[in-house]
Amino acid sequence: MSEKVQVAKPEAKRENKVSQTQKTGPSQSISSPVDRILFLQRIIGNRAVQRLINSESLLANGASGLIQRKPLSSSELENVINKKEAELEKLRKKAAELQDQFLDATLRARNKEFEKEIVARERKKEVSESQTTIHKRNVEMLNKTVRVIQSDKVIRLIANMQITFKGLSEKDGRKNAEKEIPRLTKTIRDAWTVELTQGEFSGYTFSIEPRVMYRLPAESADSNAWQLEIRAKADDKPSATLHFGWKGMIELNPNHLKGDRIVTVAHELYHLFGLYDEYLEIGKSKTNPKKLMRVGRTDPSGRADLLGLVDPVVLKKRFEKGEITKEQFDLQTKGKLRVWEEDVVSILSALAVPTPTQKKLEDTKKKLEKSSKDVTRTKVLMNSMEWLKTVEAIIKIEAELKELQKQIGQSH
Ligand SMILES: [Zn+2]
């Protein structure tokens, strides 16, 4: 059952009479006795409420029975009537106070919910405005295709992915998919798993867990999944593999699935997160007659760059042509090509994944909110039981007074 104490909402549908006065936004609350009883029935159950009412009416019958058996003189009667009227006055006051307290508690709970909504909305806006590294379009796509799972030590992105083989029949496509999906999954998992050792996320292990499904070429792409389209023709031109990062789409040269060249797919994922290539041709000059290349970012700790040039076949060709050094070649082919942790931090902040400090704060806040909700719920329940008893007592005394008035009429 929901913890929400905003009890008026369901009633607004059931009770036409009250709904009109209650549909006034976040401050709506229970106002009529009917609502209160319906509320109690929902909280403690219909039987419990019935028992309460029955016990009160038993008392009421017993009391009025007593009055009938023992005739009183008119002055005695007036005395009793006065006392009863005073008591009735007191009870009515009590019922009114209880109703005020009740409204106060439910109103406060409602306003709190409303405030929380506003705060959450503001925070989301703040995050989306503050992140500059990764384009908003990519974030929008990622929010649809990737699910974040965060525990105390692990942040895992579950990524939906579809693979399709252009120009292949369903039979051949499925056969290929069966062969390639395990390799792709392993490649992505290996290249995109990294220990975060610095900054706010220090102590976490980050990883991507791809969930790859086969898609028929004719079938339309699932917008909630990354698309890996394997071209019909193998082609080793530099533009053979393309990415349409913000669309979540990679168009892959089939050669890039072969052997260790498959690491290209792990490189392309970087583009889905909106990051750009870090290799470039520096070009010839008078002092430098050879075409030179930068294969990736220079790193003081000597990491290979997954966002740099990674295709081993291209690296070999370039090395043989003298465009890259032996060191560069070795680093990018023998070094471990995996995502850099600082890039992961950019990705996490773009996806608004809370840092451990934020997470702890949010967890504590949630716990506090829950306990305060429980207190409100208990308060509202106790108040309603008390109110019901008071109203029962009022009804009883009103009935008794009516009878006493009758008796005093007869005795005159
Ligand atoms: Zn690239």
Please compute the radius of gyration using only Cα atoms: 37 Å
Order of helical and strand elements: HHHHHHEEHEEEEEHEEHHHH
By DSSP (H or I, 4+ residues per run), the number of helices equals: 12
Q: How would you characterize the largest beta sheet?
A: 7 strands, mixed
Percent strand: 5-15%
Short description:
It contains twelve helices and nine strands.
Can you describe this structure?
- The chain is of the alpha/beta class.
- It folds into 2 domains: 8-131 and 362-411, no CATH class; 136-274 and 334-339, no CATH class.
- The chain contains 12 helices and 9 strands.
- The protein has helices at residues 8-14, 16-22, 33-44, 46-69, 74-130, 136-145, 170-191, 263-272, 312-320, 326-334, 341-350, 356-411; strands spanning 146-150, 154-165, 194-195, 205-214, 226-230, 242-244, 249-252, 280-281, 293-294.
- The protein is elongated.
- The two termini are 59 Å apart.
- Mean pLDDT is 82; it is low at 1-29 and 62-67.
- Bound molecules: zinc ion.
- Zinc ion is lined by residues 267, 271, 277.
Strand and helix layout:
Blueprint: H1 8-14, H2 16-22, H3 33-44, H4 46-69, H5 74-130, H6 136-145, E1 146-150, E2 154-165, H7 170-191, E3 194-195, E4 205-214, E5 226-230, E6 242-244, E7 249-252, H8 263-272, E8 280-281, E9 293-294, H9 312-320, H10 326-334, H11 341-350, H12 356-411
Parallel strand pairs: 2-4, 2-5, 5-7
Antiparallel strand pairs: 1-2, 3-4, 6-7, 8-9
